[in-house]
UniProtKB/TrEMBL annotation:
It comes from the Eukaryota. CDD domains: NAL. It is an enzyme of class 4 (lyase). The gene is NPL. This is N-acetylneuraminate lyase. Keywords: Carbohydrate metabolism, Cytoplasm, Lyase, Schiff base. Its EC number is 4.1.3.3. Pfam families: DHDPS. It comes from Carlito syrichta. GO terms for biological process: carbohydrate metabolic process; N-acetylneuraminate catabolic process. It catalyses: aceneuramate = aldehydo-N-acetyl-D-mannosamine + pyruvate. The keyword Membrane does not apply. Belongs to the DapA family. NanA subfamily. SMART domains: DHDPS (SM01130).
Length: 320
């Protein structure tokens, strides 16, 4: 298990939960999935049971089993396995946090409860504090995703003095487009060794300029290699090359967003790119259409994101 000093950084894939055609979890492909992330995408950190993993659509027992499988299969292969343990019920969230600690996860993350919502910073911190206390040896991350939770408490405000209340607090998954809020999180916590993980893949370069230390996202499942090239260019201060990579990634994301892009479509794209069957999503989500998958495949090929032999068409859009 990671010590709190081991900082979570770089790319973190928000893992998909593979399912069979009848909607049961397909545990049998998770080992193959781990190898694919490490060998093909160069991604060695994962974020399990989050939005992309349909965590809130799974039962508590399913979430426990999924977490166990990722930790087991990732042993000696992955650097860090962070488990999202957020739930509407404090008791369930605590149970999942305790379980994550027992199975040897490297950290836990929590979204704000979003049915009966916390309306002030203090109330939200009280909730998070109780969850963190259920796994006192694990690094704790807050998962800020206001568009889905409806909880609009600014992350900058939440982080102010948070370690006094939650000593295991190690950082933030920031899934919002408010770069003012994100920048102030970084600026006002420079003395802390927090992980500032950005969660909007198509804007990652902007967040890196603002001081992001890493990123959590669904596209790193299949665009991890390309995004890692952007991170390397940024590290070398080759900003024009980094921008080329970001624009290239944006071309694909912009294209699929116009077609309707969500968890269901991510599952379809990952099946296509990796060859590992991710299956359909669970209701209320609907399976991606064949038309979507065909369009996405054509776009991936035109951008040279698929290295299928003989299918490169030399399109000028292709990324260098």
């Amino acid at each position: 298990m990671a010590s709190p000093q081991k900082k979570l950084q770089g790319l973190v894939a928000a893992t998909i939960t593979p399912m069979t055609e009848n909607g049961e979890i397909n545990f049998s492909v998770i080992g193959q999935y781990v190898d694919y992330l490490v060998k093909e995408q160069g991604v060695k950190n994962i974020f399990v049971n989050g939005t992309t993993g349909e965590g809130l659509s799974l039962s508590i027992s399913e979430r426990r089993l999924v977490a166990e499988e990722w930790v087991t299969r990732g042993k000696n292969k992955l650097d860090q396995v962070v488990i999202h343990v957020g739930a509407l019920s404090l008791k369930e969230s605590q149970e999942l946090a305790q379980h994550a600690a027992e199975i040897g996860a490297d950290g836990i993350a929590v979204i704000a409860p979003f049915f009966l919502k916390p309306w002030t910073k203090d109330v939200l911190i009280n909730f998070l504090k109780e969850v963190a206390a259920a796994a006192p040896a694990l690094p704790f991350y807050y998962y800020h995703i206001p568009a889905l939770t409806g909880v609009k408490i600014r992350a900058e405000e939440l982080l102010n003095g948070i370690q006094d209340k939650i000593p295991t607090f190690q950082g933030l998954k920031f899934s919002d487009t408010d770069l003012l809020d994100f920048g102030q999180c970084v600026d006002q916590n420079r003395q802390q060794q927090f992980a500032f993980l950005f969660g909007v893949d198509e804007q990652l370069l902007s967040a890196l300029v603002m001081g992001a230390t890493g990123a959590v996202g669904s596209t790193y499942n299949y665009l991890g290699k390309k995004t890692n090239q952007m991170l390397e260019a940024f590290e070398r201060k080759d900003f024009s090359l980094a921008l080329n990579y970001q624009f290239c990634i944006q071309r694909f994301i912009n294209f699929v967003v116009k077609l309707g892009f969500g968890v269901s479509q991510t599952k379809a794209i990952m099946t296509l790119v990796s060859g590992i069957p991710m299956g359909p999503p669970r209701l209320p989500l609907q399976k991606a259409s064949r038309e979507f998958t065909e369009n996405a495949e054509a776009k991936l090929k035109s951008l040279d994101f698929l290295s299928f032999t003989g299918l490169k068409d030399g399109n000028l859009e292709a990324c260098s």
